[in-house]
Amino acid sequence: KTRKSTLLELSGVSVSFDGFKAINNLSFQIGEPEMRAIIGPNGAGKTTFMDIITGKTKPDEGRVLWGDDGISLLGLSESRIARAGVGRKFQKPTVFEAQTVRENLAMALKAPRGPFDVLFHKKTRAGAEKIEALAAQIGLLEQLPRIAGELSHGQKQWLEIGMLLAQEPRLLLVDEPAAGMTPAEREKTTEMLVEAAKTRAVVVVEHDMEFVRRLNCRVTVLNEGSVLAEGSIDHVTSDPQVIEVYLGR
Ligand code: ADP
């Protein structure tokens, strides 16, 4: 096993909404590179957890430390955190539907890290090799001239993953990538994420247990805003507390 250095560390993090603790004394670490799956029932705090990392939600308590020097992300804006290397893929694909796949990737390669801005929508011939390498990585080489709006749901998801990878995030947060995909698309998505996680930290929030199993990574189970269990998929799914949380709903 290669040694991984810690990229992100949360400790003792709590967040309340109107007195309700959505995140409760949560501690979490991820290395670089590493793949991690986050599972947990609805309301477990998965979205809030990602919102804390990206700076959208600021915790009431605790520490969020980033990078080799362990700088605190707490005082930083969302855009500053994105520039530091945190990329986020929401569930719904957000690509520029009227542009081609090539234009989408070209734009992402030129844009600074952070939410894609229409200001950066400029046609470009630059970086053709980079665009093609990226397209190959996301299985869309043949689709480069196509209008993004005509892609299948799965292809749009891959395109957005490609656009995020173009920005070379050190940590990529991905929310339910397999939702709405065919089994074949799920398989390709697995390969893509596993490949991406060879050189960076990837956190995948996912409900589909088969998908999580195929990621073949450490799994963190959230429940009531805390870590309920952590380990291999076999370890966490045989944990009596995890079984109770999932079956006892
Ligand atoms: P998950 O993504 O695991 O379903 P969430 O992080 O969305 O969980 O939510 C955790 C809990 O916090 C839920 O009970 C939810 O209703 C509550 N919550 C999340 N965001 C807000 C908010 N902005 N205002 C009030 N309650 C919220």
From TrEMBL:
Cross-referenced PROSITE patterns: ABC_TRANSPORTER_2
GO MF annotations in UniProt: ATP binding
InterPro entries per UniProt: AAA+_ATPase, ABC_AA/LPS_Transport, ABC_transporter-like_ATP-bd, ABC_transptr_urea_ATP-bd_UrtD, BCA_ABC_TP_C, P-loop_NTPase
All copies of domain ABC transporter, residue ranges: 8-249
Top-level lineage group: Bacteria
Protein's UniProt keywords contain Nucleotide-binding: yes
Keywords: ATP-binding, Nucleotide-binding, Transport
Protein name stated in the entry: Urea ABC transporter ATP-binding protein UrtD
Organism: Ponticoccus alexandrii
Lineage, top ranks: Bacteria, Pseudomonadati, Pseudomonadota, Alphaproteobacteria, Rhodobacterales
